[in-house]
Specification:
This protein is α/β, with parallel strands linked by helices. It contains 26 helices and 19 strands. The strands form 4 sheets. The chain has a 7-stranded antiparallel β-sheet, covered by helices on one side. Helix 1 packs antiparallel against helix 2. Bound molecules: adenosine-5'-diphosphate, magnesium ion (MG) and zinc ion. The site of magnesium ion has 2 residues, from helix 18.
Length: 667
């Protein structure tokens, strides 16, 4: 912490960079002492007395427990006392007088709506957090212009049209989008100490106070309709994911709970490495990386992508199978952030030209979370992907995965078989491993010996002998299977059947008293048979060993927090392959978009299954080498419903949407 007398230009630049980042953190959360402490250190090093004074002042303010003086310019040291009557307070007082009546009553009194309309709007409002004004507009009782001009007159606050307005990003950053969203406000412009804030309800003193407190500015409210504010928030904040400052404030404090459990750094041999390490250890970089991790965990992401492009740097999360752009940190932070991840994962930070793999174990709120880290040099720099392996998120209850009753019954019956082969098929990330683990969890008991060969072993299952396949040392699925057979197993899980050798041993095991579970990559159940035959397995072996084939996909669920019904016809699903049950008019559901689902309307996933039990008739077809289409037809006549059909039923159940079904299943 000692002040340095001379700094190299490089050191100075890096300190300035850190300072900027910290200032952003403080901007988003004025009471962030961690960031303020970092700033203190940085300004001390830089010898910037003036800024140091300001920081000390802010720290003193927080230490004395006195709320930051509203309207004061981050003062304390140096600048004068806060002007007494800040605008926010003044306008709040000014409103007391004429505003005794409630909005609805005043609208009725003015003859803008009828008492009956008010009543209907109020009953519509019950149980929601919607504003009366916007409900009236939505119900067509009142035009938006009339409402606005009414608000303007009543509160003597000017109105603003947000639809074309371009707002400076520095101004936007003053109010993080999450806060703007929650309070239904939008920062419009800043002049000196005064922030003009568009509000749907200028009487919302709490919102005024909240923004005044956070920004440390005087607030000048202006009126805009709730709808236009919401649209402006989406348009302005939405453009590059979320502003960096935004997520920082959202995550304030949380990153402090992150603890790296493994992967301490022991490099730092070359000088440039040392510098890189130093900058990666700089508090702001560590904080930003931790925030990214925490944010990813909270949003339930499965992967984090840190991607360098020619002029930009991008952070994306995969959530429920879909990539979302989260933020674009400054390009200059790229090296430091990437190095930070590599340090955490115990990788060689000096090596930037070869791909590397590693693991990080983090503790977050008493949860231990594993990350699999992989780096890959691309033309514009190293791309890093972190796969999140959250043991606690692992769902092992077969009944909760998404099975319809018929498929569940078929599948549970099959896994209780003493021997035979069960094949699970679907693309990567379709939930196959989860289904397999759940199956094993269901049949696991002390009196049976379960052995698995996996690539990689993703989770440790209690009481199960798991083996990691490693092609490099010749421990392939095939060779693992062979050694298993000498270990007296009852149930064998073969992670993937990708070659004839594995398929043959697996099938032989299935025919000699073992239950064998495995996966293949095919489109659906019927084509799995052709796949096995194509590999070279003789038809009589396939026909006698197979017990059941299961195909699956994962579809995103409609967000439970913002789900709303709308009227539809069951028949509208017919063109997609649905066979109507004569339900006629039905309700489908969609997500309006809310905080929980990051305004996508979808949150969480559900498995879609196609289950094909191998009946005697199907066995005969396999033996005869019947075409896939014929196998499919017979299977359907015996109760199998296609992936698409089962998925469409989930639309009728209100679980997912038609678009989502079309996205994840083929017709
Ligand atoms: N039935 C399910 N419902 C919701 N999420 C699931 C379900 N099955 C799997 N997932 C999630 O989807 C991701 C991929 O699942 P995984 O079983 O690893 O797929 P695969 O083995 O086909 O690649 C995991 O994050 C997992 O938690
Ligand atoms: Mg898998
Ligand atoms: Zn939602």
């Amino acid at each position: 912490m000692s002040a340095r007398v001379t700094l190299s230009e490089e050191e100075r630049q890096s300190l300035l960079e850190s300072a900027r980042l910290c200032e952003m953190i403080v901007e988003a959360n004025p009471s962030d002492t961690g960031a303020l402490e970092s700033l203190k250190e940085i300004y001390t090093k830089l010898g910037d007395r003036e800024r140091l004074g300001q920081v000390m002042g802010r720290l003193a303010t927080i230490a004395t427990g006195r709320p930051l003086a509203r309207g004061a310019s981050a003062s304390g040291a140096g600048s004068g006392a806060a002007p007494e009557a800040a605008t926010a307070t003044a306008s709040a007082e000014r409103r007391q007088g004429p505003l005794v009546g409630r909005l609805g009553d005043r609208l009725v009194a003015e003859g803008l709506i009828t008492a009956e309309q008010l009543e209907r709007a109020l009953s519509e409002q019950k149980g929601t957090r919607d504003k009366l004004g916007s409900i009236l507009v939505r119900m067509n009782f009142l035009s938006e212009e009339k409402l606005l001009s009414f608000l303007t007159r009543q509160y003597s606050v000017p109105s603003v049209n947000l639809s074309q307005l371009e707002i400076d990003t520095d101004v936007l950053r003053l109010v993080p989008s999450a806060l703007a969203e929650r309070l239904q406000v939008l920062p419009v412009k800043r002049e000196g100490n005064v922030l003009t804030l568009a509000m749907a309800d200028p009487t919302n003193v709490l919102a005024l106070d909240d923004v005044a407190f956070r920004t440390n500015l005087q607030i000048q409210p202006v009126v805009a309709s709730e709808l236009s504010i919401r649209q402006a928030i989406e348009r302005l904040y939405g453009s590059n994911g979320e502003a960096v400052a935004d997520m920082m404030s959202e995550l304030e404090g949380a990153e402090a709970d992150v603890e790296v459990l493994e992967g301490q750094d022991e490099f730092a041999t070359k000088t440039d490495v040392f510098e890189l390490k130093e900058s990666a250890d700089e508090a702001p970089v560590v904080r930003l990386m931790n925030m990214i991790l925490v944010d990813a965990i909270r949003r339930g992401a499965s992967d984090i992508h840190l991607e360098p492009y020619e002029k930009t740097f991008r952070v994306r999360f995969r959530i429920d199978g879909v990539l979302h752009e989260i933020m674009g940190p400054p390009k200059r932070l790229e090296a430091a952030l990437t190095s930070r991840v590599k340090i955490m994962a115990n990788l060689d930070i000096a090596e930037r030209r070869l791909p590397q793999d590693g693991r990080v174990k983090l503790r977050y709120h008493h949860r231990e979370i594993d990350f699999r880290v992989s780096t890959l040099p691309t033309i514009f720099g190293e791309k890093t992907v972190m796969r999140i392996l959250d043991k606690e998120a692992l769902q092992l209850d077969l009944t909760k995965l998404g099975f319809d009753p018929w498929s569940l019954e078929q599948f549970t019956r099959a896994i209780r078989n003493p021997y035979g082969m069960i094949m699970i098929t679907g693309p990567t990330g379709s939930g196959k491993t989860t289904t397999l683990y759940s199956a094993i969890h269901t049949i696991n008991s002390p009196d049976i010996n379960i052995m698995t060969a996996e690539d990689p072993v993703e989770y440790n299952l209690k009481g199960v002998n798991q083996l990691q396949v490693n092609d490099e040392i010749g421990r392939t699925f095939g060779s693992a299977l062979r050694s298993f057979l000498r270990q007296d197993p009852d149930v064998i899980l073969v992670g993937e059947t990708r070659d004839l050798e594995t398929a043959q041993i697996a099938i032989r095991a299935a025919l000699t008293g073992h239950l064998v579970l495995s996966t293949v990559h095919t489109n659906d159940c019927p084509s799995t048979i052709a796949r096995l035959l194509d590999m070279g397995v003789p038809p009589f072996l396939v026909s006698s060993a197979l017990v059941l084939i299961l195909a699956q996909r994962l579809a995103r669920r409609v967000c439970a927090d913002c789900k709303e019904p709308y009227e539809a016809d069951e028949e509208s699903l017919e063109p997609y392959g649905h066979v109507p049950d004569g339900l006629g008019k039905v309700h489908f559901y969609r997500g309006k978009g809310c905080q929980t689902c990051s305004f996508t309307g979808m949150k969480g996933r559900v498995a879609i299954y196609e289950v094909m039990p191998i009946s005697q008739e199907l066995r005969d077809l396999v033996l005869r080498n019947a075409p896939t289409a014929e196998i499919r037809e017979v299977a359907q006549s015996q109760g199998m419903r296609s992936l698409r059909q089962n998925a469409l039923r989930k639309v009728l159940d209100g679980v997912t949407t038609v678009e989502e079904v079309l996205r994840v299943t083929l017709g």
